[in-house]
Amino acid sequence: MSEQKNPATAANAQTANVKKQHQSHKKSSKSKLQVSLKTPKGTKDWADKDMVIREAIFSTLSSIFKRHGGVTIDTPVFELREILAGKYGEDSKLIYNLEDQGGELTSLRYDLTVPFARFVAMNNIEKIKRYHIAKVYRRDQPAMTKGRMREFYQCDFDIAGNYDPMVPDSECLSILVEGLTKLGIHDFKIKLNHRKILDGIFQIAGVKDEDVRKISSAVDKLDKSPWEVVRKEITVEKNQTEETADKIGEYVKLNGTLEEVYDILSKDESISSNEKAKQGLEEIAILISYVKAFGIERFISFDLSLARGLDYYTGLIYEAVTSASAPPKDAAELKEKAKKNVKKGETADEEDVSAYVGVGSIVAGGRYDNLVNMFSEASGKKSAQIPCVGVSFGVERIFSLVKQRQELAANIRSTSTQVFIMAFGGGKDWNGYLPERMQIAKKLWNAGIETEYLYKAKANPRKQFDAAEKSGCPLAVILGKEEYLQGKLRVKRLGPEFAHDDGEVIPIDDVVKVVSEKLSQVHEDGVDEIQKLLQGLR
Amino acid sequence: MSEQKNPATAANAQTANVKKQHQSHKKSSKSKLQVSLKTPKGTKDWADKDMVIREAIFSTLSSIFKRHGGVTIDTPVFELREILAGKYGEDSKLIYNLEDQGGELTSLRYDLTVPFARFVAMNNIEKIKRYHIAKVYRRDQPAMTKGRMREFYQCDFDIAGNYDPMVPDSECLSILVEGLTKLGIHDFKIKLNHRKILDGIFQIAGVKDEDVRKISSAVDKLDKSPWEVVRKEITVEKNQTEETADKIGEYVKLNGTLEEVYDILSKDESISSNEKAKQGLEEIAILISYVKAFGIERFISFDLSLARGLDYYTGLIYEAVTSASAPPKDAAELKEKAKKNVKKGETADEEDVSAYVGVGSIVAGGRYDNLVNMFSEASGKKSAQIPCVGVSFGVERIFSLVKQRQELAANIRSTSTQVFIMAFGGGKDWNGYLPERMQIAKKLWNAGIETEYLYKAKANPRKQFDAAEKSGCPLAVILGKEEYLQGKLRVKRLGPEFAHDDGEVIPIDDVVKVVSEKLSQVHEDGVDEIQKLLQGLR
Prior knowledge:
2 copies of one chain form a homodimer. By secondary structure, chain A is of the alpha+beta class. The first copy, chain A, has helices at residues 16-23, 25-28, 48-67, 81-84, 113-122, 167-182, 195-205, 212-220, 227-237, 242-252, 258-266, 269-272, 275-293, 331-343, 350-355, 371-378, 395-403, 406-409, 434-446, 461-471, 481-485, 511-525, 529-534; strands at 2-3, 71-72, 78-80, 106-108, 127-137, 151-160, 188-194, 255-256, 300-303, 316-322, 363-368, 388-394, 419-424, 451-453, 475-480, 488-493, 504-507.
């Protein structure tokens, strides 16, 4: 229970003396420091309903991960710096280092994938399905509205081990679909491509092997920039011929259902005579039958322009985007405004520019068959090939989508309190039954029932009712001055519709039984607001 | 599901070609780096059963915190360095700093209390009951066996707000008792003291105000060192007179039930004429009636030698110790060995020395009325006194105690898998029903049922049974080659006691209904092993 306004509290005769002393601390705590009362740039506190929604997203996803046989692990928030080195290409500059205070050099983890590969290699694990929900760190330019933070959560599910091709890959795609639909997000598509097909296309177009990754990075920008801009990057900045660029352009324009694009590519002689592209295409053929078995083919768009930034992918790559990811109506205007600011010599406001690209991809993943092996070999272990495939849910972005269902969020409670214990009596001499309220509370706590009472020896009835209503809890247990002396309590439903219901008088000893019964009635009547919110139902 | 041995997999004709390509990656991933395959000093990975036990501890504690009206918050893992400055006395040297890579200076959080106070001050919160389960960081000498890590979890519950004295304090004590007993730890006692009484005693003994905190630190060592050693520190190192030391010695020897020690102190004229001590004692009088209401007075030992290290406490202080915290039998020997190593010019092995002091306190807490105020004042906000009291569970230490119940841990599964889908057939031409197994799995997943199958197109029955048994799941759904063609599935219990049970043949369309029914039977029969483990039952 958190409150930002605190009504003045009336003093109680019995405890007034001590309370005065209590408050007299005020004078003795002068501090001369001047500190900024804020969290570091790109980080935030989570509290109240936001926290409840986020926790519900985590619990929804982890129950899906468990449903697929996943086990969870927990790795340290920082790793030896050498473990992270050379894994993220250009983005390595975004890694947070810890200060060298003597001892090992360490850095905050950038993602959960590299620590997972380190874990698998270090423990000689031959197969594992693991999920991990934890924070990662990137010294990026924050864009809060876009959900881009320096500290943010990832929810990852990965399958490591030697298996028949596309079996774990198709399950990751199924998990992606199950996760988003269970969270009430139905208007998404999965852009899917295959690194081997893409690399094959680059070979066909005449890109040299050593240039493949940087051309791939250029193509990766097609979700934000038109082909003409990317083409210029390929020819001018990356020194490829016009012919190479145009050949790439022909292919990366292709997209459609898995079967449509498969049909086009399988009839393409350049593709079938390129070893890499052919391998990739054979895997797509197998994948088609598996996604049909899962009934998820309608979500998938085979899109040859998808390249994905990270170096470590070796096979299937995919990312889910929603229609909410499309530029908002006023994006052009915002972009224009941001440009103007730059012209005037100011720094471009990232908050403005970011609005243009929307929330971006909300889930992403792919196959990375060499990462575990890199660790095994680099540490001098007997090398075993442990291929991996995974899927990573971007919680901050999903959170923004879920939270847009505002009208439902209004009903979410941040406490779980079920019972508020009150004492009504009167007369100056009456002690307010505080130890008695505590005794009843203890009985209910011991029975696992969420219970509160006002932290006041002698509390007036109005304040107790206000506090109970504020907490949103459905039941009150009332110690009436006279009734209690006769060994009785009153149990009453709370809420406006029960304003004229006096409740039921019961023996004190029955309190756990009666309260439990009434609560199960309450919860039969009610609907879980959080589940309703997550599923996007009205 | 994680396995460290992987049986060689027989190739399947349909997919052999692609698989070969899959494995050919092996050659292309040579890396020349030499890296240490380990986690940083004082950190570790959590996995398998340890992870399951730890998660169960978290869920037990958070359900208790919720039961008391708690809401959870999440703060960043690093804070502005100035927020942490000047809060931890001598221990400030243990704070991990992030490297100055441009921008703000930040440090990893040392505990959850200071970030909580920053949160309360920053958001002008007047009252909140919050819990927070998260990692904290201390560059201490690690002692794994003692449960002392550089990265470890704290589970904190704190109540902020102006309330009648001792009401929230006694609830924190009740939460301490509920938490430990719910986790099966019954042989503990709560050492309790009051900073005002302690400070009063120091005044009575003639300690100057500016020396109080350092004398308090000396007294804090009484749990590890005999009085003679502490007395020497007070007189020799901390420059107090013999008389002062002896006066302190008289008081700090006192311990007993709350009422016993209260009686002694309330008859002591020095105490009743010292303003601070008198205030503290009045609060103890109130506390006595509240802990009686909660029925937890038998756990409490009023112990005037308890001082607690941290500067920020202002009232009640307490810590729970277990009999398991006492030195093990071979402690003296280990200590001797450690000393010898030092004599030989080697570094003392902390692992050895630490065994001497056992696991130490497993829960600790107290009242800190000025911390929020310090932040408000230092940031120039209108200052409001927000008194706080809290309790912090040391999970790593509790984990060690719970895990000692080895015989129970043996039964814990790390996956939640309930159903393993298999296909039996035969003949070279049979395709292994993999897409069909996927279809059935998808039905069960959509019904929320944890389901796995072997990631193999054509799997032999033995391997499928082995995998199912290894997962420990109770049910198999079997696609028999002939039965499936007739629209039928076989549902069968797994486990040695069902070896001769052929199961039941059902229509495919009934699979969700039948599996759900059978699983509810299974779980009625069974007992939750984790709950049994936590509660220490056999």
